[in-house]
Predict the structure.
Amino acid sequence: MKLCRFDRDRLGIVEGEDVADVSGALGAIPPARYPLPKADLLLLNLEAVRAAAVELLPRAPRLPLRSIRLLSPVANPPRIIAAPVNYPAHQREASADGGVHFDKDVRTIETYGLFLKSATAVVGPSEGVALGFPDRRNDHEIELVAVVGREGRCIPRGQALDYVAGYAIGLDMTIRGPEDRSLRKSPDSFAVLGPWLTTGDEIANPNDLLLSLHVNGELRQRASTRDLIFNVERLIEYASSFYRLYPGDLIYTGTPEGVGPVRAGDVMTCAIEGLGAMTVAVR
Ligand code: MN
C-alpha cells in the first residue's frame, strides 16, 4: 500500500495516477493526551488506520495525483537517524573533492557511526527546500529512508525488517563546511520525505533498489542500494544498539556518489525503484 499525506493533512492511498481520499481512517487514531508518546501517532496506530482505509477504499473519492500537494508521509518523526559515508563511491568522491568533506582523510560509516538530523527539518515534496545560506554550498543527497514501525532496542539484523513499516525517498540536504553535521543538515526543510510511504510488504529487498536524482533534467546521482556499506538490516541493528527505536523514526541510509550543489530556482527530480518519484523545488 502507498499511503500519502496531502493538502490539509488528508490521508490518501495512491493507486496509479490517482489518490483515493481515505481521511476518515485517521479516526482510528485514539485521541492523544499529554504527555505524548515518543512516536508518530500515525505510525504507532498504522495497523488500525490501514484496516480502516481498506474498508473506505471502494467508496473513497478519487483525485488526480498531480492535483494534490504532497506532504511528508510522516508528520512528526521522533528522530531522523542518518548514515554518513555509507557508499564506497561516495567515500571516493568526498576524498577527491575538498568541498564535500572537510576531513583530510575521509572514512566510512564504520568509523563515523551514525548522526542525528533535527526532525523539525522534515517537509514533503510540495513544500520544497529553502536555502537560508545561498552563498554557501548546498548539496542534494538522495537516500533510501526506512520508516520504523515498531518500538525496539538491540534488534538483531535477522529480525530488523520486522521493525520497518515501510520506505520512502529522502533528501538529506546539506550545507558543506567545517561545522558539525547536526548543524549543517538541520535547517528547516533540509529533510525532504516523500512522495508517500510504501509499506514494507511491497518491497521484497530494500538492499537492491535503483536510485536516481536529476537537477533541472540533468542526471546527477544514479546508483543501487546494493552498494550500501551498512545495509538496512545492519543500520537497524546498529542504531538500536545505541537507542530504543520508536514508530515513526526515520533512518536515512546514506547517499551514493554524485552529490552536488543546488541553487534557488533549481528543480530536483528524485526516484527510487518501487517507491515512486517526486519533484522538489529549491528556493
Ligand atoms: Mn546523507
The two ends are 32 Å apart (CA to CA). Residues 80-281 form a domain with the Fumarylacetoacetate hydrolase; domain 2 fold (CATH 3.90.850.10).
